[in-house]
Amino acid sequence: MGHHSCCNQQKVKRGLWSPEEDEKLIRYITTYGYGCWSEVPEKAGLQRCGKSCRLRWINYLRPDIRRGRFTPEEEKLIINLHEIVGNRWAHIASHLPGRTDNEIKNYWNSWIKKKIHKPGKAAQSATPSGFDHVQPVFSTADQFDAILHHNLPKPSAADPMFPPPPCPLFMFDVSAGDSGSASGSSKEEFVQEVATLTSDLWNPTNQQDQAMPPFLAFTACMESNYLPPLVDGMGGMVPCCVGEDGEASRQPFEKQELSEWVDSRQYSSPLIWDQVAGTSLGGEALPTAPSTMDAMITSFSSSLSRIN
DNA sequence: AATGAACGCAACCGCGACTTA
DNA sequence: TTAAGTCGCGGTTGCGTTCAT
Membrane spanning segments where (predicted)? Predict the structure, then answer.
C-alpha cells in the first residue's frame, strides 16, 4: 500500500523539479518521444517515477502549453462547461487549447473559494463582459445526462427549463475523423475550413443568394441567448438557421443541403444527423480557440445586424 | 517591520480504465 | 479469462508567495 506501483523503486525523487531535471526530461522527450512513461526516467537519467515525469511533461514542460492568465472568454467557457459537465477537468481542458486540466482545476478551485467568500462579487464575475447574455441550456448535469440518454420529453416552448432554440439545429459527429486524414477530417481542420468557407460565402455581395452559413447561425444563437448544448462523444455541432420564408437571406438551409455540404468535404463518416429542435437536444460546441471565436463573432456581427 | 492568514500552483495519491501477455 | 503493468483522471496536499493587520 502507499505508493503507486510505478513508484515502488527505492530512491525515487519527489517534490519540486529542478531546472536540471526539466532539461533532462525535455531533451529526452523531444528526442525520443514517450512510448512508455515507466521507461522514461531510466532512459532520461532521472531519479523519478514515470508518473511524475508524465505529470511534469503534461502539465508544465509540453511546448504547446499556454501560460498566463485566463482570458474572459476562457473563463466564460470554463464556467459554462463546468455547469454542464461538472468537475470533469480533462473534458473542460479539451476545449481550451494549451490549457491543462490541472490548471483549470486550480483556477476553478481558487475561483470557487472567492465565490464562497464573496457570493455577490463572484456571481458578477461569472459573466465576463460581452457574454452576459449567453446562458447554458442546462442548469444541472442531471438534466444534461437525461437528455443525452433521451429520457426526457421533447423540449417545448412551454417548458422554461428547456427553451427551444431560436433556430433549428443540426448536429453531426466529427469524432470519427479525429485520427486525421489527407481530406482534412480533424476537428481543427474542420473548424478552420468552416470559418474560411463561411467567410467566403457570407459577404455583402452575395449574401442575398446564400443560405445562412453555419457559423453565422452559431453567432445568431449566441446573440439570442442560446448556447448550443454539449454532449460527450459527439464531435461537433453546426447550428443552421432556417429563417422565415421569403427573404433570401433567411432562406432555409435544408438538412439535405447541409448534409451534402458536409459530405462533400468528407469531414466525417458516417454522419449522424439529428434535427435538434423538436426532437432532442445534443451536440458539442465546436472546439474553437477563443481567438478564432472572437474573429468569427467580429466578422459576422455586422452581417447579423443587417438581417435582424 | 513582523507575522499569521489566505492564496496560487506544482506535485502527489488513489483509483478506475485500459492494455497486454 | 485473468492478472500485472500502465495510463489518465480527479481529489488532495504541501509549500512558496502575497496580503492584511
Answer: none
Report the range of poorest mean pLDDT among A10-24, A71-85, A178-192: A178-192
Of residues 20 to 59 in chain A, which lie within 7 A of strand B by their beta carbon?
A: 48, 51-52, 55-56, 59
Q: What is the pLDDT of residue A233?
A: 24
Q: What angle (nearest 5°) sits at the alpha carbon of residue A124, between those of residues A282 and A75?
A: 50
Residue A275: strand, helix, or coil:
strand
Least Cα distance to A224 among A175, A286, A167, A279 occurs for A167
From the list A285, A306, A56, A68, the residue with the least C-alpha distance to A187 is A285
| Bridge partners (DSSP) listed for residue A172 | A236
**Does residue A79 carry a pLDDT above 50?**
yes
Closest nucleotide over all strands to A105 (CA to C1'): C10
Is the CB of residue A198 less than 8 Å from the CB of residue A251? Answer: no
A51-82 residues labelled b (16+ CB within 10 A) or e (exposed): bbbbbbbeeebeeeeeeeebeebbbbbbbbbb
Note the CA–C1' distance, A285 to B20, in angstroms: 36
Asked whether residue A3, judged by its CB, lies under 7 Å from any atom of the DNA or RNA strand B, the reply is: yes
pTM of the model: 0.47
Q: Of chain A residues 108-147, which have a beta carbon within 7 Å of strand B?
A: 109-110, 113-114, 117
Nearest in space to A23 (alpha carbons), one of A65, A61, A63, A64: A61
